[in-house]
Amino acid sequence: KNEVEQSPQNLTAQEGEFITINCSYSVGISALHWLQQHPGGGIVSLFMLSSGKKKHGRLIATINIQEKHSSLHITASHPRDSAVYICAVSPQGGSEKLVFGKGTKLTVNP
Amino acid sequence: DAGVIQSPRHEVTEMGQEVTLRCKPISGHDYLFWYRQTMMRGLELLIYFNNNVPIDDSGMPEDRFSAKMPNASFSTLKIQPSEPRDSAVYFCASSLWQGTQYFGPGTRLLVL
To answer: Considering chain A, what is the average pLDDT of its residues?
Structure first.
């Protein structure tokens, strides 16, 4: 079993829809990261959080440490949001390594 | 800042050849990471350095892979000899302690 599980694997939405991507993990963590990878291949860090909620524009990330679960929400989705969204965790213990989920491929149609 | 710089961006080589991938981290960052991404396995950490010293190389697949960081502004990942199953996208990233990791554009490697 992977330490980081994401759902769904693939998601297709219509422009304007509210989108939720989920991430569950099985290890103790010091932080959780949400990354975005566009079709061109570049990877960008969206959020790093260890508690509560963070918001950046139309993106919102939440984390529940007790339930070992995080969600990434996109409000008023747009075709330019089409990308692969990757959840990653920094395991407790002082290591800087990241453990990645398999990613969620999001397609937003106009 | 120019961000993390990787070269080459694309590499096509034949099985058995030596491949060297290069990375220049963001100036001032003291952590450098090498990742590999494949369709089957997703993103995987290969090795990371702190202040030029390798800290965790448990993800390096086998002895054919080696990584060095001779100074704070340069790192290499070498595969010798290369095999078709090494075909993947290799990313370098850098960060400060417990900070956001900034990824380079990646090197797309194809071993024929």
So the answer is: 94
